From TrEMBL, chain A:
Catalytic residue list: 103 (cysteine persulfide intermediate)
Keyword Transferase: yes
One cellular component (GO) term of this entry: cytoplasm
Alphabetical UniProt keywords: Cytoplasm, Transferase
Principal location listed in the UniProt entry: cytoplasm
Gene3D superfamilies per UniProt: 3.30.1420.10, DsrC-like protein, C-terminal domain (1.10.10.370)
Record-stated family: Belongs to the dsrC/tusE family.
Name of protein: Sulfurtransferase
Subcellular location: Cytoplasm
Superkingdom to which the source organism belongs: Bacteria
From TrEMBL, chain B:
TM region positions: none
Membership in a protein family: Belongs to the DsrF/TusC family.
Protein name: Protein TusC
Source organism (scientific name): Pseudomonas fluvialis
Highest taxon listed in the record's lineage: Bacteria
Automatic annotation (TrEMBL), chain C:
Protein name, per record: Sulfurtransferase complex subunit TusB
Pfam families per UniProt: DsrH
NCBIfam families per UniProt: sulf_tusB_dsrH
Cellular component aspect of the GO annotation: sulfurtransferase complex
Molecular functions (GO terms): transferase activity
GO biological process: tRNA wobble position uridine thiolation
InterPro entries assigned: DsrEFH-like, Sulphur_relay_TusB/DsrH
Top-level taxon of the source organism: Bacteria
Protein keywords: Transferase
Length: 104, 119, 100
């Protein structure tokens, strides 16, 4: 299956192009194999975007995950480990969201 | 200790870029854990009304974005009671959990922050 | 802990001056620059409001903006400042608020 159009940073140009298969393909480009734990965060991110219409920066992501899944997962250590040290950027990319704009 | 900032957003949501700029500044400040409060004043309170359909103007949903503020650590949210009343919004349901302040309380709010930014 | 409020737009075009006047605290200063100096036009409502401010509020205006607009009839309480004095004022007050 061919990859839908991406922007220069590798984020989907159109949010509607996202699917689980696309997420797997995007993850493969990052040498990442998606596990249940990854999916849990990706689904949460898509819910965040549906509600707030923006991609969270790291702190907001950590807070949101803590709020929804508890402190065991809502902490930087856990999220950094899952998403190679840049959870807000990488997880947003795999979830098909725009690049977080308030994230350096 | 970082200096505390009060951001005063006083323009209507779709009148120009000011409301969006104030929100972006708040979100950026929150992302860096700066002690930041946000006051909606004058036409700025019009950002708080519910049921807006910005997609009609091909605009991003400012109201939805504003609701993310607490998750970005911006929990000190205020609105001028006078500005709300002037615009007939004193009983309206607002899209954000803001604390309503009378003029005296707004004066105290201004005096209790190190930096003021009005947009 | 006082504030220097800085206004730069015409008082006849928007609500900034009116809104600012309501939020002044004793010890605050109000500096007019750009088109905000039109608030000093003789016999207009904004000028009256400025003259009626409590004494503990200092009123300043930028010299070159007054001159450029041909305003020479100033209220007695007005302190006319140049740019270096403007900069010094921002240091005298605990904070400044530019009504952009």
């Amino acid at each position: 299956m061919s990859m839908p159009p991406l922007d220069q940073d590798g984020y989907l140009c159109n949010l509607d192009d996202w699917s689980c298969t696309v997420a797997e393909q995007l993850a493969a480009r990052e040498d990442l194999q998606l596990s249940e734990a990854h999916w849990e965060i990706l689904n949460l991110l898509r819910a965040f975007y549906a509600q707030f219409q923006l991609s969270p920066a790291n702190r907001a992501l950590v807070r949101y995950v803590a709020q929804q899944l508890g402190p065991d997962k809502g902490n930087s250590l856990y999220l950094n480990r899952l998403f190679k040290g840049t959870p807000a950027k990488l997880a947003a990319k795999l979830a098909g969201l725009p690049k977080p704009s308030n994230c350096l | 200790m970082a200096r505390s900032m009060l951001l005063i957003s006083r323009q209507a949501p779709w009148a120009g870029p000011a409301a969006r700029e104030a929100l972006d500044l708040a979100l950026a400040g929150g992302a860096f854990d700066l002690p930041l409060s946000l006051l909606f004043l004058d036409d700025g309170v019009l950002q708080l009304t519910s049921g807006q359909q910005p997609q009609q103007l091909q605009q991003k949903d400012l109201g939805a974005n504003l609701q993310a503020l607490p998750l970005f650590g911006i929990e000190q949210l205020y609105a001028s009671q006078r500005s709300l009343t002037e615009r007939g919004l004193q009983h309206a349901e607002l899209g954000l959990p803001v604390q309503r302040l009378d003029d005296d309380e707004v004066r105290q709010l201004l005096a209790s922050h190190d930096l003021l930014v009005t947009l | 802990m006082t504030t220097l409020h800085i206004l730069s737009t015409s008082p006849f075009a928007d609500q900034r001056l009116a809104s600012c006047l309501r939020l002044l605290s004793p010890g605050d200063g109000l500096l007019l620059c750009g088109d905000a100096v039109y608030a000093l036009n003789p016999d207009c409502a904004p000028r009256q409001a400025l003259e009626l401010m409590p004494e503990q509020i200092a009123l300043y205006a930028l010299q070159e903006d007054l001159d450029a607009r041909g305003l020479h009839d100033w209220p007695a309480r007005l302190q006319v400042v140049d740019y270096p004095a403007f900069v010094a004022l921002t240091l005298d007050y605990a904070r400044s608020n530019s009504w952009l």
